[in-house]
Predict the structure.
Amino acid sequence: MIKKLLSTLIVLFFLIFSKSISAVESQDPIKLTLHDWTGQLITTNIMAEVLKEAGYNVELIQADYIAQFAGLQTGDLHVAMEMWETTGRDAIDEYTPDGRVVNVGSTGMDAIEEWWYPSYMKEQCPGLPNWEALNDCAEAFSTMETAPNGRYLGGPVTWGGFDDERVEALGLDWEVVHAGTDAALFAELESAYQRKAPIMLWIYAPHWAPSKFEGEFVDFPAYTAECYNDPSWGINPNAAYDCGKPRGPIWKVASSELKAKWPGAYNAVEAFKISNDEMGQMVAAVDLDGNSVEAVVADWMNANKSRWQSWIK
Amino acid sequence: MSQKKINIVFIFLFIVTIIISLFSSNILDNDYFSWALNFPKSLNISFKVYITAAIKWLIDSATFGIFTFNDLTRAISWIIEQPYNIILSLVAKGFYEGQGSQAQLILSPISWIAIVGLMTTVAIKLKDASLAILTFFSFIYLAIFGQWQSSMITLASIFIAVPFGVVLGLIFGITSYKSPTAYKVINPILNLMQTMPVFAYLVPILVLFGFGPVSALIATIIYALPPMVHTTYLGLKGINPSTIEAGKMCGCNNQQLLWNVEIPSALGSIKLGINQVIMLSFNMVIIASMIGAGGLGYDVLTSLRKLDIGGGVEAGLAIVILAIVLDRMSHSYIGKQIDYNRRNLHFIARHLHLLIVLILILSTYVFGIFVDFLKVYPDSFTLSTSAFWEKAIKYININYYDQLEIFKFYILKYFMLPIKSFFISIPWPWFLFILTLLGWHYGRSKLAILNLVLLSFIIINGLWLKAMVTIYLCGASVILACIIGIPLGIWGGLNNRAYKVLLSITDTLQTLPSFVYLIPVVMLFRVGDFTAMLAVILYSLAPAIKYTIHGIRNVKPEIIDAGIANGCNQRQLLLNIRLPLALPEILLGINQTIMLALSMLVITALVGTRELGQEVYIALTKADIGRGLVAGLCVAFIAIISDNMIKSASKKLKIKYGFA
């Protein structure tokens, strides 16, 4: 009897003890990737802090947005916290089919991408944000090179977006000029805003620009899948793309190794959810008010304890 | 044919080209002839598909029996990673026990005070007090402007990339010298490495060598290696044969001949190569940071994404400062003679500097435990000029934007657009014919066939139009860079004070990352070809100035004396003696300007140009290995063609003026 009790005790002791020394599956560091925009730094740092609270060992690594897929595939990298439906779809489609990279679901944030103009332009063009007003004020948005057509500064060609097709399909008297990077995009906005000069350009959210500069997105006919595929749909019966840009979730992607090696961490990444507004405020706190990413993340961790604790249960 | 007749033929051909280009759109733009303007898509051969497949095969299936190709590349990155981690820990990160967020600090990095002391002492040892003062204030700048941590990360990667580049360069250089067959293989590969845009091979490197700083280091080494090989090879080739004979007569075997005779004789060139490796490694700092190198390059990128121009300028200047200090140090090292007298000194006297540095490092370690200031430069003592830069740009933007806009409009309308329409309206068969003819004129069948093959590659891959836009953008920038740079160079060649000022300007232009000025330029001139051209001019101006100065200053004094004796005035001296004699050198400067302009192309894709650089950039953002490499090869081929043509022209000129 005593022997039995003793052995039970020993087993129990070992169970408890072993549980306490390795609460998590592996102590190898989980590698999360950092890119070069603030929102992504914040999401990744929050995830890293939460995983640390759960007892995981994490490491943050600088990597390129698309090039990182090579690393996720080989298992050199494990988690990428922001893969936008609007810009990352091709990469997701290319790398997920063989199962080495997996889509871990939405971050809870939705990407918005559309034509945008600063509020002061509304005086010259009161019909906005309705897209039908675009042709009436094309001249107000023109420059020496594009006159009498309006000038629309589109995103880098790599972002896609079908703006050239949109202008054609909707019969807009506008010329599409492509910026090479988003830094160039926002440099032009900053410059025009300083001079209160006309500008119409591609803006995306969540981003600091819509909080720093006052303005609105243009209202195009709402996007549907048919609009892009079927010419007969929409205002122009002979052309596709006669509608606005799609809006879509910001995904999280991970290497298949994450689920195999750290299933608990995988579940935590999967549970991670945050809203556009929360993110917008945090990005502004960093980029406009000059706080550090770490401080902003720490504030969020303190204020949302019950939320992140439920992710690591 | 005499030279005069040949000139007439070429002028005639040029006029014909202009006429063809002017009327091609009227005559050829119909169903029957449009193939001559746009190479038919149905005939394209997509090399990119094959290249992508080949790389995929290398990674997934290639094997040497015992180990796979992937194992091999991973082993290489492991070898590079070890010393890198040690240096990085030593100067920037500190040594840790354990991995990731659970790591415990066991030894903090060397204190900033000790590093400032170390670099200053090295400067004294290498040259003199003035270099030491420059070094001291440069490193203090890094601390005061809050760039210390990032600078040390950048410095760590330079300290690894440079030795690897130098050793590999020596090995390849010596191999090419010893075996003419090896030279024939290595030389074209080097030319490709030098002219291929770095963005084109970033993705393959990432895939092969894994993610992180090591891939960035490997890209840096690839980029910085070619000049080291070239200078080593040329240095060894240039040894006086009688020196080698003397060595042989003394009974050297091959090994002894190499290490005791040939390498010491070529040491001057080899040291010059080391200097080049350092400078080129600094050029890579920004691009390396895109694939995980961190450091100053990363700071520049993130500041500019936030439109924090000041932050970008400060981090960019930190790169310039580090580059200039290391450049001066390596130059002093080149000029340094071994001081044999020192051997007789007492141990302490001989190693005085070393001892001082060791004491400094140890004492800052020990006292750093108690006083934080000794260990890390405190954040609260840092300065920033950020607000100043922001205000300066804003002031120009608000007050002078309209004037700048008009200036831009005229340059675009009367200079850039005519050049653009000239190039893109030339039918490709005619261009192919002209270039083959030029190749024949300069290098007979060898160059003619080379031009034909390289150009055909571009056409067959369906990149004809983008290649012509590339040539237009580069051409326009090079013309303006020469119009600005050559007169400045002449001024610097004649005037000593101007020479000094120009030298520091060109040093800054060459090492300041172009990103730093790209964003302000966009703010003032918006995205487009004009902005791209400005960026290319700024970047490629340096060689136009430098080579001209060099050419003018190197005219033999006895020739000038002869001119003076014949009664030339200053104007005549310049126009009839100095300039013609400096012409071959100036041509080489133009050649370098073209090379730099081409290498800048990928960066201009970031402000919305539509040429081969953009093709490379798109491939990078889509991680399309084949597409990037093909577009990169096309850029490299354009560079190789123009390089061959100009070098031959320069050689002919030298023969004409009796240098050769």
